[in-house]
Task: structure prediction
Amino acid sequence: MPGLSLFLKRDMTQTHRRPLPRICIALGLPDVPRLLEQARREAEAGENFLEFRLDYLRDPVQGVQAIEQFLECYPNCTILATCRRHQNHGKFNGSIEEQLRVLDLAIQRGARAIDVEIESAEVAPERCAQLRTSAQLIVSWHHFETTPPLEPILKRMQKVPADVYKLVSTARKPTDTGRILAASRLSPKIPLVTLAMGELGFPSRVLSTGLGAVYTYAAPAHVQGTAAGQVNARQLRSLYRIDKLTKSAKVFGVIADPVRQSVSPHVHNRAFQSRRIDAVYVPLLVSANQLRDFFQFATDLPLSGFSVTIPHKRRIMRYLDQVDPLAKRIGAVNTVWRKAGKWRGANTDAEAISGPLAKLIKLPKSTALIIGNGGAARSAACALADAGVKVAITGRNADRVRALARLVAGEPMSHEQTLARHFDVIVHATPVGMWPNTNDCYFGNGIPGEIVFDLVYNPLETTLIRRAREQGKQVVPGLKMFIEQAVRQFEIWTGETAPRSAMEAAALDALETKYSEQKA
Result:
């Protein structure tokens, strides 16, 4: 019955050639019981594509047996087997022949895909071709130092026929991430997985599948991942919604250094979801000396807009084509977007400070002390001075304090001088008291003001806010200002009314989660 044999062979081939799911959970555990425990936890959470890093085990063959054990309980899951040699930054000490024998056993026990690094695959192409008849072959390339030119690497890899080619580099600057992401877009007919390791490369983990990559990697929810920059699948699905992103999705972000603690992705992604907008907002680590490179990345990607925070609010202005008059006067930009091919900047902090205070006090002829001389302090000083407030400025850098005071016709003061005066409003615009230094506070027992507005929002209640409450002051927590400026950013970027309540709920959820993690 040759016809029936051919039919069965085709059916089996079609089974292991089915498209791979969009998120692969990378499981690298040192023993089989823990590997199976984490695999089961992920499967129970609904994840159905798991990588078993067999090279992490003392005896990879035991891991092969674990594949069969696992699939008996979870037959709908797809297993990717990897046994990377130590010469290629894996943990397996055997020969290439032994490595491929382990992967062959993994296929026999139910693995639907195997990952073979190019260094092994090009030595044994015939053996890889044989394995490929029974499982999908992923040929992978890794660079753990930087991101070299990718075109010659891809040409080298394509000499070994495979179902997927995986390009994984290390991002040292924003354009490294951009070049990795561009590989899928520029080579749409070649099935690729494209990732940049490290915090700088984090956007690639969110954006790559939307730009055409076959799948991305995530860390397990309860243990450490296998590569720098991995986050768990729950975040990729619920926060960044990568299952729903299309190739036409607009990309936004926040640039900062550090950026990991930012709650802006939670707030803006919830807003996009609430308004059913095909867009995503990602954290973008950019150091002070990388702004020029970042704008190349932003143009090439392209980014539709981004938030700006420490330490870039002032430096960013030199890279913009247009800056609105208030932001120009303040000398700080926190919101950037692209329109008609030009980068435009605005400052939404100013209104986010004066607006909440105007609901508590008549601002004209009132007095305010601004603590700080950075971008947020400049926003507060200009906004309040424009509203008719008599402004005093204090901070660590006396020269910058005097310059800011001159800008708003205010009074420069030393810390000691502020303690001898009393103000209607105090606006704290420095990082003092921000996590992780939550016990720090600019004032001790005597806070010389009636209303205290602390622009720090992590933690939700800073030591300054707590002390102000204890002293009977009216308080405005930093979250109020954060939400107000984010609302205005959303409206600038989308032209739609911002879902304020959804954004505030997202910020509270994110901050409470971060606080719980920090305490743990």
